[in-house]
# Entry
Amino acid sequence: MKQIGEHSDREVLKAWNMEVYIEIAVSTAIVCIGELLMAVYHVPGWMKIILLIILAGYIGYSLLQFIWLNKIKFNHWKYHIAENGVSHQKGSLFRETVIIPINRIQQVAVKQGPLCRKYKLASVEVTNAFESTEIACLSLKKAQDVCEEIQQNILKLGEL
Amino acid sequence: MKNSVVKHKLHPVVIFAGIFKKITTMTLFFIVYLALHQNYFDRISGGTQIFVILFTIVGIYRSYLYWRNFNYSVDKGNITIESGILFKKIEHIPSERILNVDTRTSLWHYIAGVVELRMNTAGGAEDKQSFRLRALSKEKAKQLLQDLGHFPEAEQVLWNNSKKLLVIYSFTSFKIGFIFAIISFFIFQMDMLKSVYYYNQFTLWLDTFTVEKRTIVLIMMLGGVSWLCSVLITAGINSNFSVLRSEDGSLKISKGLLNKRVQSISLNNIVEVRVVESLFCQPFGYCTVYLGCHSGDGEQGMSNLTLIPLMKRKKAAELMCCMLPGEFKDSLLPGKEKKNWHYQAKPAGWLGYIITKLILCMMLLPIIYGIENGLLLWSGVVLGVLLWGYVQFKDSRISIQGMSCTLCYRVFNKSTAIIHKRAIEQLSLTENPVQTLNQQCSFSLVVKTKLISRKIRLKNYEVFHGRYVMKWFES
# Structure
């Protein structure tokens, strides 16, 4: 297998940042509902403070993601499809490199969520007998090409 | 001209065996039903009696049809099995695809003088990997195996489990969880025992304790009974345990007291060998050896295929050298010497692990238990974590030779696994921020055999160790 080389699409950064906005909005909404319920049921004040601290921490981490971590994630994000296997490198603070030999792949699929559809992105899901690994946030065209390439490699291996 | 192939039938005893099994299942079902409904043994209605009679008649007829429609034949070394009552099925199995053959003799087989043959292949869906011939006379079974050209008579005895080892293994296996659950279930459902004198005496004795003490006494007694049952069951399963080698090099594992079982395993089917030193056996230098195969069955409800139940750890490498295929021999159990292992976990990483755990305990324990008790507990935890961390670090090693790698790791039991590349599904390398700073990484290997898929994690290795392992896996 060759060295990991291919980079993600630049559009991905926008999608990841949008993910951060949505996460902040949802978590703020949840905390607001929580605070409201606490006020109704006369929950002790220190619990409200803990909830606010958690929210502040989460928003802080999300901002860190927005300013710094997403860029690191983007620079570190790589994948490579070779004749004998698929390798994928991902993560910002917690990094992971996964290698799956081509003869262990059971299933390949292209997936698209609502956010990915907006930015014309897609993910390739590679499944082996144990778990699935997702090569996320490729352009739709690239994802289809990757899927096809993996299928071709599997077929080639079968012919051998 | 059409070749005339002789079609063979199963032994007719299979008709009665089928219904015997059904009645056993039904009896178990009734016991559970009656236990749940507080022993209304005398209230079995006339309808239920008719149901039982009908069930038996239909069962016997169905078993007869199964026997009548079941044929097998051997042609040019390949076996053809025809079966099915309403939906007919014809299966052709090329003999070279058969990787394991199990010969089982349960109590009813023993009484009728027959054996059951199970053949396992590697390909296909899970349910299509195993083919069963439920009752064959011993001569027919021997003839069939000869015709298939597989697994000739065993010649060399490689291992015989002594009575002393069997006793130690039975007492230290501690497979009590399942038995404990069953006994507890029945104890709490058996209201019928209320009229039994000894039961009443026992409950009166229990009532003399406080609730807490009563619970402890009950758990201890149940645990003790379960342990005794576990000892008896383990001894029954593993008595007469021997490993033999056939002319073609394949292994034959023979075991069992009432339910005898002979498993033939071809060497190219073996993809993993695991030597496990359990907490109880380790101080005495004993270990258990398990095999991982591409196909085949384990013990019922177990995820392992035991090669040797108990043996001296020192002798394991030497013995397995005689048993295992050549590709494993290079990487067989490098021993304790550091020079024999390629990579070992970095002490700095483990120091980090210990410090993190200690800080966590320091913060949490005083909060939960108050400052005085918390500090007392904390000092106890310090010793525990130091010992745990040291043992985890000491036993984490990797060695790579040819097509297989040897991993040594510990959760509670210490395991040394020799894994062929064929069995590794996926390799992952992970780094957390602390590891990135110290140029360290952790490995995760997904190992898949027929019986189980599991993830082995090895923490805190140098990054270049990780790259080397990746290169080995990719090549």
